[in-house]
Design goal:
The complex is a heterodimer of chains A (227) and B (256).
Chain A lengths: L7 H34 L2 H32 L3 H37 L8 H20 L3 H31 L4 H33 L13
Chain B lengths: L6 E12 L2 E12 L3 E5 L6 H7 L10 E9 L2 E2 L7 H7 E4 L11 H12 L7 H11 L3 H4 L12 H14 L4 E5 L7 H14 L4 E5 L3 H7 L2 E6 L2 E7 H4 L6 H7 L5
Helix pairs in contact in B: 3-6, 4-6, 6-7
Classes of the chains: A mainly alpha (227), B alpha/beta (256).
């Protein structure tokens, strides 16, 4: 059973902060989903809509930072409250970066569609789906305070890295084979790189979530599978 | 835990009863020289009762029964041949409210321990007073009025005078029972700064209701609840990731 704070105003403050970071996380998830959808469906309009969506995330990031700093000053939290607030401060940066990457991908999709030339994107859609699944699982790990799910996100990053490696090789080969499509493959290479970065950010978020839940710092360590 | 120093004081299964009421229940805890041990817990958890055992303060109270062992450098302080006065020389105590002797001067207050216990020393009275007042970070503020009445000092200065009085006896252990709860933030900061300086040479135990203070001044924190020692750990660990849910609930304010 989760106990409430004796000071109910503190509970309320923490709830507001949690709702705000979840709002950001939800928006970022939507942005990434839209970016991936516009990639697979060559949808310029959706890509543009996603780019415009980013402004609200930037202002939310500022609000979350301000709320967190005020809570630290006013409540001087300790234990899991301290870990939660510090984690939120760090997480919001990674969510904002995920949003930025979604925007970058959308810009490249618009460019690709403008070129209007058919190319072979290879397994990039599969990679995008894997990254999208990582983001979903990251959010669930945070929402449900689920250590196993956070660990599972970290474990999935290796597969995304491997996929990125293979796609990069494939796209470079396509560049050599189809010099007239160099611009297309240049954009696709960028998209693959940013999807790989998204996986890294999910890993960072999962590490923060593990710290938030258990107080363990698992950064910069090779994690063994859970027993 | 970073307890590189040898244990100065150790309790083994220490229990204290006030009549039928069990105030301290089987507490085993080590206190080390060179570090500050904070004791936290809600009112009535036994933390003050516990530290009062460490210099046999309960000897004055009828109906108090102390069981278990308290070893000071390996010797049981409740042993039959142990003189409680000699224990109180070695284990100094400072209380919540500054309590200098109001009819005495600043100098007389610092030296009062000598007057009461007839402790022998080769140093002159002036030397002892100066060293103790300097160690209590009070000397510069009172050096021109050592014969002035102690009542003329501010609350924070009075509390540092009480610390100087305890230090004059050259104790090994310093017990601080909520030493800042009656002081303003500036005086509190001075006492905390002093605790930080003093810890090099003493084993310090501080009982405090102020968890931020425990987090600031101590290296080890012990959490008491209903007379029991629930958890003891490095302060930085206990305040960021305590092992026991009861500790977590208390420090995060989910108590009661």
């Amino acid at each position: 059973m989760i106990k409430n704070h004796t000071n109910r105003a503190f509970d309320n403050d923490l709830r507001i902060l949690r709702d705000r970071i979840l709002l950001i996380a939800g928006r970022v998830e939507k942005m990434v989903a839209n970016a991936i959808k516009s990639l697979s469906e060559n949808d310029t309009a959706l890509a543009q809509k996603t780019i415009d969506y980013d402004k609200s995330i930037d202002s939310d990031e500022v609000i979350v930072d301000r709320m967190s700093i005020e809570l630290l000053a006013q409540r001087q939290p300790v234990g899991q409250d301290l870990r939660f607030i510090v984690s939120v401060i760090k997480m919001v940066t990674y969510f904002e970066r995920l949003g930025d990457l979604a925007i970058k991908i959308c810009h490249r999709i618009i460019e690709l569609n403008r070129l209007d030339r058919s190319h072979d994107a290879g397994d990039i859609a599969d990679m995008a789906k894997s990254v999208q699944a990582m983001i979903r699982e990251t959010l669930e790990a945070f929402l449900e305070r689920d250590y196993e799910k956070a660990l599972s996100v970290i474990m999935k990053d290796d597969a995304v890295d491997e996929l990125h490696h293979l796609i990069t090789k494939r796209l470079i080969a396509e560049m050599h084979a189809h010099k007239e499509l160099v611009e297309n493959y240049y954009h696709l290479l960028s998209i693959a790189k940013w999807l790989e970065r998204m996986g890294d950010h999910c890993t960072n978020l999962a590490e923060i979530i593990i710290y938030m839940i258990k107080g363990q710092d698992v950064r910069h360590k090779r994690l063994a599978p859970t027993e | 835990m970073t307890q590189a120093t040898a244990s100065t004081m150790t309790t083994h299964n220490l229990s204290v009863r006030y009549g039928k009421h069990l105030a301290v229940d089987q507490v085993s805890l080590s206190i080390h020289s060179g570090q500050v041990t904070a004791i936290i817990g809600p009112s009535g958890c036994g933390k003050s009762t516990f530290i009062r055992c460490l210099n046999r303060m309960h000897d004055f109270i009828a109906g108090v029964e102390v069981d278990g062992q308290i070893l000071l450098d390996g010797v049981d302080i409740y042993g039959p041949s142990v003189d409680p006065v000699s224990i109180r020389r070695r284990v100094g105590m400072v209380f919540q409210k500054p309590n200098p002797f109001p009819h005495m001067s600043i100098m007389q207050n610092v030296l009062s321990g000598f007057a009461f216990t007839r402790k022998r020393t080769s140093k002159s009275k002036e030397e002892i007073a100066e060293i103790a007042l300097k160690n209590a970070a009070l000397f510069d503020e009172v050096k021109d009025r050592l014969n002035a009445p102690s009542g003329a000092l501010s609350g924070g200065q009075q509390q540092r005078l009480c610390i100087a009085r305890a230090l004059a006896m050259e104790p090994e252990v310093l017990l601080l029972d909520e030493p800042c709860s009656a002081l303003d933030p500036i005086s509190t900061a001075r006492i905390e700064d002093l605790i930080h300086t003093l810890r090099t040479n003493y084993a310090i135990v501080i009982v405090t209701h102020n968890m931020q203070q425990a987090a600031r001044v101590s290296q080890v924190t012990a959490y008491f609840l209903s007379g029991k020692l629930i958890e003891v750990d490095e302060t930085r660990k206990l305040f960021t990731n305590p092992a026991d849910q009861r500790t977590e609930d208390y420090i995060t304010g989910k108590f009661g």
